[in-house]
Amino acid sequence: MTQSPEINANEQEREEIEIDLLDLFYYYRSKIVWIIAAFIVGALIAGLATQFLITPKYTATSTMYMVSSSSGSVVDLTDLNIGESISNDYIELIKTRPIIDSVIQSEGLDYTYEEMLGMLNLSVVADTRIIKISVTSPDPEEAMLISNDLAVKAEETLPKLMDAPKPNIAEEAILPTHKSSPSLTKNVMIGALLMLLLTLAVLTVMYLMDDTLKSAEDVEKHFGVMPLTVIPEGKLDGFQNTESEKVHRRRRFGKGKKKNGKNYLN
Q: Fewer CB atoms inside 10 Å of the end CB: C or N, the chain?
C-alpha cells in the first residue's frame, strides 16, 4: 500500500527537524567552553550583587496562644473549635489601622500604615490555636521591638474589641542574628541559570543565521544535488613536505649536475 505524498512530506519534515536539532546539539557542544564560562559569570554576578547591592533583612517572630474557655479553667471540645475559628479573626483584626498606628507611635517609627503592613506576616500554626506574628526589617532590633509591641497591643485591644477571652503571649520575639533574605545560594543559582539561558539563546540565533554549507548533506538539502567530491579540511602535509624537501635540496646542491643534457638532483 503506497503512502500519500502529504504523509511522505510530513515524515520528511519531521526527519529534517530531528537532524537540525542534532546539529544544534553538536553546535552547543562545540561552544561548551563559552557555555560553561557564561554559567560561571552569571553565578559570580548574582553572588556579588547579592552580597554588596541588596540590603539584608531580618525576621523576628513572637507567638500568641488563643485561650477559649467558658469556665476560665476547663477547656472542652466546643472551646477548642471556637478557638480555631476565631484565630483567623484575630489575625485580620491585628492588621487594622488603629493597632498598627499605635505601634508606629509607641515605637517612634517613620513608617506609613501600608509600609508597616508590608513588613508583617501573620499566620496560624496548622491544627492549633497558635498565632505567629513575624516582622521583617533591615534592622534586627527594630524587627524584634515591633513584633513584641504588636503582640502586646493585640493582647490588650482584641479582647475588648471582640468580647472574647484574652490571648496569652506564649513567646516573645528575640533578636535575630541571621538574615532571612536575600538567599545567597538561591540568587547565585538563579543568576547562573539566567546567564546560561541567555547564552544558549544567543548561540541558537547565531546557528540559525549561519547559512554556510558545511557538509555534502547541506548541499543536497539546499540544491537537490549530491556533490561528486568533497575537499577535505586541513593542511596537505604530504604535498607541503615534498615541496619543502625539493627546495631544501636545491639550496644544498645548487642546480645539480648535468647528465645527458639534463639537470638532476642527488
A: N
What is the DSSP annotation of 69-127?
-SSSS---HHHHHHHHHHHHHHHHHHTSHHHHHHHHHHHT----HHHHHHHEEEEE-TT
pTM of the model: 0.64
CA 76/CA 71 separation, integer angstroms: 10
Q: How confident is the model over 209-247, as pLDDT tens digits?
A: 876 766 666 666 666 666 666 666 655 555 455 555 555
Our count of domains for the chain comes to: 2
117 & 73 share domain:
yes
Rounded Cα–Cα distance for residues 51 and 120 (Å): 25
Which residues are CB-contacts of 242 (< 8 A; sequence separation ≥ 6)? none
Q: Which domain holds residue 214?
A: 5-52+183-223
Beta-carbon contacts of residue 78 (< 8 Å; ≥ 6 apart)? 70
